[in-house]
Design brief:
The chain has 39 helices and 35 strands. It is α+β, with helices and mostly antiparallel strands. It has a 9-stranded mixed sheet with strand order 14-35-34-33-15-29-32-31-30, sandwiched between helices. The protein has a 9-stranded antiparallel sheet with strand order 17-16-28-27-26-25-24-23-22, with helices on both faces.
Length: 1234
């Protein structure tokens, strides 16, 4: 692009920000940085990337990877993952020993299951990691224009970029690496950058190149370009950068304003040129990420403990067996002539029973291996994969706008979704879509705007219901009025006479009640009130004040107007969405901001005298910007008549303190309106102005210019003093109320999660004020909630040791005071919110303070961390995870959230439009935050209970089966002889009992998804671990021991002393073993039928089909040659089938084995029912249809008492309204004092 084509009319942002950019330029005031010592060794040769491919400047390529494995590491790491499971390690040892003479089984029957289990798990890991690899490849394959030499640029993939490359990035594209900005299409070398993926902020940042590189604005300028950058080494700090730029024998200092970070986006700038200084994993965003961790669910970790217990049991009975064998061998074997005691081997030597006993110990360890369920792992893997597929296919978590379904990127953590205690959430892009709508305003003491907020609507409906339920109409409350055109007759049956009292009136009008999620036709403007629209404001009593109000909206801001060529209108690029909403509102009221120059703003406004729109130019004299300390913004302008005005907007507390004596006419009514807006969940600002004489302005401007040009630590303080000199004696005009547009369904989702007993923390890179406003919008904060703010205001950061000590002492003092405040609170409805900024958090996370900080945070209803870096997000997540020892879930949508997503027990990525870094690092991905409700409350609850019951059942059936082997060995003098055929035992876990338990893990539902959402307190069964605590596990194990005793001893007792057939034939070991195995198969499958709450045809098929399959196996196996089937030849058709005793024994033992579980279940449901038992009975008897009041009463009980969320906010508003009603009623009923 020719230099003459560069945009000359564009505003230089540097001229707008009087606090930051009216300082002298860097090159004029600052010396180059002294870069010495460790941490400042990086040297970049600009436009010479080939020098960085070899030592000593060998830097990594721009290739990035988020996978757990690669081609080389997959086999060793995957095998490690499998064999760190103690059960798999045991079965590996058993498989090795199975090829020896000590094995009681054939080698194939031991090795085959192990290979299948381990192989299936490794294939699953490979598939999941392949998906991550594909996502990485998509990022690495993005294209960017790179200088190839001789001033020629061409496109390369990101992964081929090297340090030193000069790249050209075009509008709306991401930066491929960390770049040093050289030039842009703007004359002054600025560019606008969106850093949502880094710090969560959507407001544009201004970056500015060095003046010396401004001429490098065309491709051919880089033909002979050479320069050297010496800077800090790669580090994770996003907000700092120190370096020097050596160019044309001059050295220039570099700072963060000249650096463009990877994964931020170029906005409102046609192109920029930059040189790569950090690539790939050296870039700051990747430095903030951590290696993909290997996560295991808490249930799986506890399962290992149970397996350790079973190993101990296995070792114990093996020792008993080996000792018993040694004793029998020493004392009884010499008398057993038929066993040839004179023919000895190493494992059978009556003369050396100790050695023989040791060999028998090895045999016993293998024989009783069925106590350890090898198929448990592969069954769980299969179940989790199927559960994940149901999550992926859930139509209720499918986002129609983007066509994005939910995705379980790993199935290892399905059950962990049902045990979450704390959610740590990003803000921007996760909770909000960062859209603000102008909805109400107060001008000259009059409130305008009839659109109701969600809080107002919910409160109105609840008030109506309470009035009906409590029959308050009879109390003749004449002072309460809810104008409710949207409520139906049943809700609005209390038509008491109206008393117009604005302080208790809740106005709700229009169709907003029926569809609150409908977006306004004009983005940023959802205001409805005919008194102000279409020029009707001229008819209002205080039209002059209204005129001032609209002018303040149109002028007091830093927005940039930009012509939208597609639709032919002006759109605004504002620092924040709320500022954009103010400018749009001004335009809709007839005051259109249409042009900004370096020294003026142009407004098209309605002229009452001429009745037409005319252009008015206001000369921009000064701009005093908003920051977290000032909490206000002011502009000083001169109108066409030469009159000077200061226009100011800011927090109401700050503005009210600066009002003059003649500026408080509307203060009282405005305060009332602000309180009402706050109760309605709206963000508010107060608007004011003052006129300034020429003399006063000249004197003040001299003071202000002197403060601006000061160099040193006192500069900011001098500027603040100068601002205070002019921002006084203000005249109040009114106030604004805007609604922060959260993502669809966020308040409802947070409310449900709070009712389910989950704690929610918000971690954001936004400033404290923005984070607090979002907290109010999504009901994490509310009016009346006491805020505890931990900040480092007033701490002078000079000497490092002194400032660190002072900062720590300040944090300790604030935490101590907060503890005392909470402990002294006596109001049971009181709620506290902890809000901490990033600098304070850095000290609070240190070893000696983090426990105190965490304990304080636990006592608060909500926690908001502001201005946090990605690294701090991960550290906070780690603190909560390790400090509470409870399950944490982190959710975010940007690259700045990757660290906390990987650190949390469960990471959830939002698959938004601003990149897929969070999704690639996550365990689960969803398209909208609202889907988290269903993911946890429905799928999490189901998966937890399914996996817990499945594991307990596995241990039960293996105990009931494995102990019969021990009993038989003891019964046969510890001979090491199994009572069952090898093929029976191989098929027991693989086929005959596997499908029913898989159906339990996949299809079981204690309650339906609708009921899960209606009764959120059911979710607490997971965090409290009701279905997988030691009491429950030991109960199942005890049931297994009982079944094994009944099965073995009843069979032995029945068959030992009587004939088996009519002909007098007595049973042998194969008959007893077959009958015993039949009882085990029937009991195991019937037991799972008793445990299932929700039957489908699949469960019936698998349960009864497995029992039928056993008889098919007996039939087919019995038909095989006796060389293979041995004693089982024709055992069904010729032996046990025709014998009534076989069938009688099976029925009798199965019923006896199931009796305790059935009795316990019946007793529990009758006398000590659990929550889901009650709901199941209600649904079965259709009481939810027959008795609706009872159903709603039960639903109300099923909510965890919470102090956050929409319901808590509405409850607080209702308490407030009822108190005011009570006071009004008392005042009306009291006798007239006159």
């Amino acid at each position: 692009m020719a230099r003459g084509a560069r945009k000359k009319g564009k505003v230089r942002w540097s001229k707008l920000y009087s606090f930051s950019c009216m300082r002298p330029s860097v090159s004029e005031l600052e010396e180059p940085h002294h870069l010495e010592g460790p941490g400042f060794s990086r040297v970049v040769m600009c436009n010479e990337p080939q020098l960085h491919r070899k030592k000593p400047l060998r830097y990594p390529s721009n290739y990035v990877s988020t996978t757990k494995y690669n081609v080389i590491t997959f086999l060793p790491k995957a095998l490690f993952e499998q064999f760190r499971r103690v059960a798999n390690l045991y079965f590996l040892l058993t498989a090795v020993l199975s090829i020896t003479s000590l094995s009681p089984f054939k080698p194939a029957s031991v090795i085959a299951p192990l290979v299948f289990v381990v192989g299936a798990s490794m294939v699953k890991e490979a598939v999941e990691d392949w998906r991550r690899f594909i996502q990485d490849m998509k990022v690495n394959a993005r294209k960017v224009s790179v200088h190839k030499g001789d001033g020629v640029f061409g496109y390369k993939s990101w992964e081929k970029i090297r340090v030193g490359d000069v790249v050209k990035v075009e509008k709306d594209n991401f930066f491929p690496a960390d770049l040093l900005l050289l030039s842009s299409n703007f004359e002054d070398g600025i560019c606008y950058v969106e850093t949502m993926n880094l710090d969560g902020e959507t407001n544009l940042k201004v970056k500015r190149c060095l003046e010396t590189t401004l001429p490098l604005d065309e491709d051919n300028e880089f033909k002979d370009f050479r320069a050297t950058v010496k800077c800090e080494d790669p580090n994770p700090n996003l907000y700092t950068f120190v370096g020097n730029f050596e160019f044309e024998r001059q050295v220039y200092p570099l700072g963060p304003d000249q650096v463009l970070l990877r994964d931020s986006k170029l906005r409102n700038t046609q192109y920029i040129y930059g040189v790569v200084i950090f690539s790939g994993h050296d870039s700051k965003v990747m430095q903030n990420s951590t290696e993909s961790p290997s996560k295991r669910s808490s249930i799986e970790q506890k399962m290992d403990k149970i397996i350790y217990f079973l190993f101990s049991l296995l070792l114990l009975i093996s020792l008993i067996s080996s000792i018993g064998f040694a004793i029998q061998l020493k004392f009884d074997a010499p008398n057993w002539w038929y066993l040839r005691p004179d023919y000895t081997t190493s494992d059978y030597n009556p003369g050396n029973p100790g050695v023989s006993g040791f060999y028998h110990l090895v045999t016993a360890l293998m024989l009783y291996g069925y106590l350890i369920p090898i198929s448990l792992y592969v069954s769980i893997e299969v179940v989790k994969i199927l559960q994940a597929s149901f999550i992926n296919q859930d139509i209720h978590m499918y986002d129609e706008d983007t066509g994005t379904p939910a995705q379980a990127r790993t199935s290892n953590l399905n059950e962990e979704l049902g045990q979450v205690d704390t959610i740590l959430s990003d803000k921007t892009g996760t909770l909000t879509c960062n859209q603000m709508d102008f909805i109400k305003c107060s001008i000259a003491g009059t409130s305008y705007g009839v659109v109701a907020s969600e809080v107002e609507i919910a409160a109105a409906k609840r008030i109506a219901k309470d009035l009906n339920d409590q029959s308050l109409n009879a109390l003749d409350i004449q002072n309460f009025d809810i104008k409710s055109q949207g409520l139906n007759a049943s809700e609005n049956s209390f038509n008491s006479p109206r008393f117009q009292e604005p302080d208790i009136e809740l106005r709700i009008e229009g169709p907003e009640l029926t569809e609150m999620t409908e977006r306004p036709a004009i983005k940023g403007f959802n205001f409805k009130d005919d008194r102000l629209m279409n020029g009707n404001w001229l008819k209002e009593p205080h039209a002059d004040v209204l005129l001032l109000f609209f002018r303040i909206l149109a002028i007091c801001h830093t927005a940039i107007p930009e012509q939208d060529e597609e639709i032919g209108t002006i759109k605004y690029e504002a620092e924040s969405p709320d500022e954009g909403a103010f400018v749009v509102a001004a335009r809709e009221f007839g005051f259109e901001f249409c042009k900004r120059t370096q020294t003026s703003v142009l407004i098209k406004e309605w002229d009452p005298s001429s009745g037409q729109n005319i252009e008015r130019e206001y000369k921009l004299l000064n701009l005093l910007e908003f920051n977290s300390t000032r909490k206000r913004m002011s502009v000083i302008v001169k109108d066409e008549d030469g009159q000077i005005f200061l226009l100011c907007k800011g927090a109401d507390s700050v503005i009210f303190d600066r009002l003059g004596k003649n500026g408080r006419n509307y203060e009282e009514s405005t305060r009332i309106h602000l309180a009402q807006y706050g109760d309605a969940g709206l963000r508010t600002l107060a608007l004011s102005y003052r006129t300034i004489t020429e003399t006063e302005y000249s004197e003040w401007n001299a003071t202000f210019l002197k403060a601006k040009t000061t160099i040193g630590a006192d500069r900011e303080a001098l500027l603040e003093v100068a601002s205070d000199l002019i921002e006084k004696d203000l005249i109040l005009v009114g106030a604004t109320a805007i609604e922060d547009k959260l993502q669809k369904g966020v308040p409802r989702c947070i409310d449900k999660l709070a009712q389910a007993g989950l704690k929610i923390w918000v971690l954001t890179g936004d400033k404290m004020e923005t984070a607090i406003n979002i907290g109010f919008a999504c009901s994490l904060l509310r009016q009346g909630m006491k805020q505890i703010c931990l900040t480092l205001k007033g701490i002078e950061f000079g000497n490092q040791d002194t400032s660190t000590k002072a900062a720590k002492e300040s944090i300790i003092l604030q935490i101590t005071n907060a503890y005392q405040t909470i402990s002294l609170e006596r109001n049971p409805d009181a709620a506290f919110a902890l809000i901490i900024e990033g600098k304070a958090l850095a000290y609070a996370l240190e070893t000696d303070l983090k426990d105190q900080f965490l304990q304080l945070a636990i006592l608060c209803a909500s926690v908001i961390c502001c201005r946090v870096s990605p690294k701090q997000k991960a550290l906070v997540t780690r603190l909560v995870k390790e400090g509470t020892r409870k399950t944490t879930l982190a959710i975010g949508d940007g690259a700045n959230d990757v660290g906390m997503i990987q650190e949390a027990d469960i990471g959830v990525g939002i698959s938004g439009v601003e990149g897929m870094q969070a999704v690639m690092a996550s365990d689960f991905s969803i398209a909208q935050f609202r889907f988290l409700e269903r993911l946890l409350v429905v799928h999490g609850h189901w998966c937890y209970k399914r996996i817990a019951q499945m594991i307990c059942y596995f241990f039960y059936k293996n105990i009931s089966f494995g102990l019969t082997l021990f009993y038989f060995e003891a019964y046969t003098s510890f001979s090491g002889q199994p009572i069952y055929d090898d093929w029976y035992m191989l098929l027991f876990n693989v086929i005959l009992t596997s499908l029913p338990v898989i159906s339990l893990g996949v299809f079981e539902q204690d309650v339906s998804s609708e009921v899960c959402l209606q009764f959120p307190a059911l979710y607490q069964q997971g965090p409290r671990n009701i279905f997988f605590n030691w009491y429950r596990v030991l109960g199942w194990l005890a049931n297994g021991v009982y079944v094994s005793l009944i099965t073995f001893f009843f069979n032995i007792g029945i068959f030992r002393d009587q004939a088996f057939r009519v002909g007098g034939q007595t049973p042998d070991m194969s008959i007893v073993g077959t009958t015993m195995f039949t009882c085990i198969i029937w009991t195991a499958n019937c037991q799972i039928a008793l445990a299932i709450s929700h039957f489908t045809w699949i469960q019936h098929l698998f349960i009864w089909g497995s029992i039928g399959l056993w008889y098919v196996v007996l039939l087919v196996y019995g038909m095989i040659s006796p060389i293979i089937s041995t004693d089982a030849f024709q055992i069904l058709t010729g032996v046990v089938g025709p014998a009534p005793m076989y069938w009688f024994t099976t029925i009798f033992i199965v019923l006896t084995s199931l009796l305790p579980y059935f009795t316990h279940s019946a007793f529990q449901r009758a006398f000590k029912p659990m929550d889901h038992h009650i709901i199941q009975e209600i649904k079965f008897l259709r009481k939810d249809v027959k008795d609706v009041k009872m159903w709603f009463r039960e639903r109300a009980k099923a909510k965890q008492k919470t102090k956050i969320g929409f319901s808590a906010r509405v409850d607080a508003k209702i308490r407030n309204l009822k108190e005011r009603l009570h006071k009004k009623r008392s005042a009306l009923s009291s006798p007239d004092l006159e």
